[in-house]
Write a structure and sequence with these properties.
230 residues; Rossmann fold; five-stranded parallel β-sheet; 7 helices; 5 strands; 11% strand
């Protein structure tokens, strides 16, 4: 699949930025898709815009998903569920309230439709199954299953022009992801990881994503450009 065109799911976070850097390196041309779904960390959409410009991605779609699609998640303010803070992250079997119902399935479905329409074979997503919060749609089995579905349920797939769901970070720890991004020239100051950033632009420093990000930079021996509230 090297040197093929690619589409990237670009959230604006650290992992998606690193996956985008891999896609840009390995592909002849890249497009990106970002989703606005009422998330409390909506500033990540602006981070995604900055990253698309940084990588020279000309086609960057920002898709609005009705807020009523995703409820029962702490990432939607109207759900009334608070973002968990200072959670014990060693319990990989405990799915936190920041899980968004079937989010990656919906996002990948949009990317698949776009890819088939524009004759793109590779879809990049920055999921990670090591330093993550325990989401079921970030695991290798899920990615493999979606790829099988994509090639069973599309014209391109059944005609032998199948798709590859690329998850280059899936078996990497956060510190290794950061080192990879550093080597690929990613500007992490453009990214936002926090699930509950303040109006002042500061990251909370206590949500799962902040904890994993901060720990990853320390272990990688790389300066974290993030401004934390705590």
């Amino acid at each position: 699949m090297d040197n093929e065109k690619a589409v990237i799911l670009l959230s604006g976070g650290l992992d998606s930025a690193t996956a985008a850097a891999v896609a840009v390196r390995e592909s002849s041309a890249c497009s990106a898709i970002t989703f606005r779904y009422g998330q409390r960390h909506k500033a990540e959409v602006e981070s995604a815009r900055k990253l698309a410009a940084f990588f020279g991605i000309a086609t960057h779609l920002i898709i609005d998903i009705p807020i009523d699609i995703f409820q029962r998640t702490a990432l939607i303010p109207s759900s009334g569920i608070d973002v968990p803070k200072n959670r014990e992250l060693s319990r990989a079997d405990a799915i936190p309230d920041t899980y968004v119902p079937a989010r990656n399935t919906l996002f990948l479905a949009y990317a698949l439709a776009f890819a088939e329409s524009w004759d793109i074979r590779s879809i990049f997503i920055g999921v990670n199954a090591l330093d993550y919060s325990g989401y079921p749609d970030c695991r290798p089995g899920y990615i493999a299953a979606f790829e099988r579905m994509a090639n069973l349920g599309t014209r391109a797939g059944v005609e032998g022009r199948g798709f590859s769901i690329r998850a280059p970070l899936i078996a990497m720890g956060k510190s290794d992801i950061i080192r990879l991004g550093r080597d690929l020239g990613v500007d992490y100051s453009l990214t936002l990881s926090c699930y509950d950033p303040g109006e002042d632009g500061l990251s909370c420093g206590e949500c799962d994503s902040c904890i994993l990000r901060r720990r990853g930079f320390i272990e990688a021996g790389v300066t974290d450009p993030t401004r934390y509230r705590k």
